[in-house]
Amino acid sequence: MLQQYNPKNADIKVHVGGKLIHREEAKVSVFDSVVQGGDAVWEGLRVYNEGIFCLEHHLERLHASARALAFDNIPSKNDIKKAIFDTLKANQMRNDVHIRLTLTRGEKVTSGMDPRLNTKGCCLIVLAEWKKLVYNNEAGIRVITSSQRRNGPQFLDSKIHHNNLLNNIIAKIQANVAGVDAALMLDDRGFASELNDTNIFIAKNGKVFTPHADACLPGITRSLVIDVCHQLNIACHETNLSLTEVYNADEMFACGTMGELTPVTEVDGRKIVNRTGSKLMNRIADHFHTLIPHFAEPLPF
């Protein structure tokens, strides 16, 4: 799976540091913290006809991540919303759009690690592109188990949605070399955590299970899937999942803003064999789609 360039994005305008700029001119300083040390937080948002999905949830997580990293002069949610809306309006985007929202600690007076060198406040970047869902939700995806472990809170808390993604990138490189779509990352004890880019669930004997949000990101779509299970009276448990349990699942699926709900059909060359005829993912996905209008913030233009 490789995301494709969309020619419609050739002349998009990007919001950088308070200005809307053509993509070819959209840049940050070499002294910006995101360049110096990956010192930034981010969110991925999806725009449907009904509006921006779970916008408030994403802005709350962005603010929580920035506060955890002690950012100064964090822009208000209303200011961030205005930047998003202005960007979408400038590009006349209303559907099939993915937004990469980034907030850096800002520019430093001189290169260095110390946040006290940041004296100009945060830098907000709104990059909106026409982009279909990343994964094929019908064909599903194939994954391998990565040797690269997912960060636990004793190293770098996954509840901070930060830009330091090298461990995920290394896992993705391993998936690329293996010729599959994604990598399953384990936690420091060897339990399944998440894919390199999305959360995971398995179904077994009519019940749904997902890893504890210790080493994995407690994703917004993940949370909605858990809620949907409860609404449909499907038992859903957060638990430790060993690879043995993954290999023997009736169903396995990934979820996230970038791909909604996507079946995982193979792990480490082993087919996920649905011997029970279980179709829990389909039930959950169908109900999930009915929630989009309720969680979408309409565009003001």
Account of the protein in words:
This protein is α+β, with helices and mostly antiparallel strands. Helices cover 26% and strands 27% of the residues. The strands form two sheets. Strands 7, 8, 9, 10, 11, 12, 13, 14 and 15 form a nine-stranded mixed sheet that branches. Strands 2-1-6-5-3-4-16 form a seven-stranded antiparallel sheet. α5 crosses α7 (280-295). The longest helix has 16 residues, at 280-295.
Tell me, rounded to a whole number, the average pLDDT.
Answer: 95
Give the biggest beta sheet: 9 strands, mixed
Helical content stands at 25-40%
Number of domains: 2
CATH class of the largest domain: Alpha Beta
Instruction: Count all strands and give the number.
Output: 16
Stated plainly, the CATH topology of the largest domain is called D-amino Acid Aminotransferase, Chain A, domain 2
Give the strand content: 25-35%
- Specify Rg, calculated over alpha carbons: 20 Å
Give the termini distance in whole angstroms. 34 Å
SS-derived structural category:
alpha+beta
Shape: globular
Number of helices: 7
The CATH architecture term of the largest domain is Alpha-Beta Barrel
Please render the helix and strand layout as text:
Elements: E1 13-16, E2 19-22, H1 33-37, E3 40-48, E4 51-53, H2 55-68, H3 77-90, E5 97-104, E6 123-130, E7 141-145, H4 166-178, E8 182-186, E9 192-195, E10 199-204, E11 207-210, H5 220-231, E12 236-238, H6 243-247, E13 251-256, E14 260-267, E15 270-271, H7 280-295, E16 296-297
Parallel strand pairs: 7-8, 7-14, 11-12
Antiparallel strand pairs: 1-2, 1-6, 3-4, 3-5, 4-16, 5-6, 8-9, 10-11, 10-13, 13-14, 14-15
